[in-house]
Every structure is written in C-alpha cells, then in structure tokens.
Amino acid sequence: MIKPQNLNKGDKVAIITLSRGLLGKSSCKHELDIAIKRLQDMGLEPVIMDNSLKDMKYLEDHPEERAADLKQAFMDPTIKCIITAIGGDDTYKTIPYLMEDLEFVEAVKNHPKIFIGFSDTTNNHLMLNKLGLSTFYGPC
Asked: How many whole angstroms separate alpha carbon 87 and alpha carbon 21?
C-alpha cells in the first residue's frame, strides 16, 4: 500500500465534490464556512476545487468535471490532502474518467495524497485502493 505523507502547517487541502453534492447549496454555506475556518485554525490552507460549488444538476450531468477536479488535485504537487463533500449517489460515474486516464493513475501512484470521505465516495476509496493508495474513511 502507498501511504501518503503527514500534513504539516501550511499544507493545502483540496475540498472536492465527487458526487452530485450539496456543497454548492446556500443551505450548506454555513457548514462550508465552519470547515474552512477549522482547517485554517489547524494551519492548513483550504482549496475549493473548480466544480465543487456548482449546482447539483450541473454536477449530476457532468461526472467528467468532477473527475477532472480529482485529477487536478492529484496532479498539483502543493495539495497534500483531499477532503470530499457528501451528497449524492452517483460517484461511480467518475470512475471511467479516472481509471482509464493513465496520467491520473500515475499521479495517484507518484503523488499520493491523504484522501478522506465517506458515504457515496466509498466508490472512490475502492478505486484508489485498487491503485494501491491507503485512504481514510471518515468525515467529509
């Protein structure tokens, strides 16, 4: 198993929506604000991925964009951790865009990151585990 490095103060943490997500809903803004403050209080720098706050319909219709955000997070050497947002039931739709992308597969193996989330993102845990990455099933 590939084990990612520990987090250090100043590290960047990607916040990503891999499912249809709730993160972009106005009713969830207060939760996002709390999460960002808590990460900052720990000395970490939150990075909201490009599509993470888009509306649920857009995210449902564009699994390739959700997959692109995960690929971007793994490709970015400054991002050390990826935290997923909960919400939805179609994360599995991202997997073909990722597992068939050799650049993504190599990025996971060569630039391992801490990956955290639960619920629908179990699909992504299994995908990353298949690539050899040790992940953390936990808070989102």
From this structure: 4
pLDDT digits (tens, 9 = 90+) for 79-105: 999 999 987 788 999 999 999 999 999
Distance CA 94, CA 79 (A): 20
Tell me the C-alpha to C-alpha distance, in Å, between residue 53 and each of 4, 21, 56.
Answer: 26, 8, 9
Given the structure tokens 């970490």, which residue do they identify?
44
User: Token pair for residue 37?
Assistant: 């403050």
Ranges assigned E (strand) in the chain: 12-16, 45-48, 79-84, 114-117, 136-137
Could you list the beta-strand ranges (E) of 2-74.
12-16, 45-48
The pTM score is 0.94
Q: Which residues of the chain have pLDDT under 50?
A: none
pLDDT of 21: 78
**β-strands 79-84, 12-16 pairing:** parallel
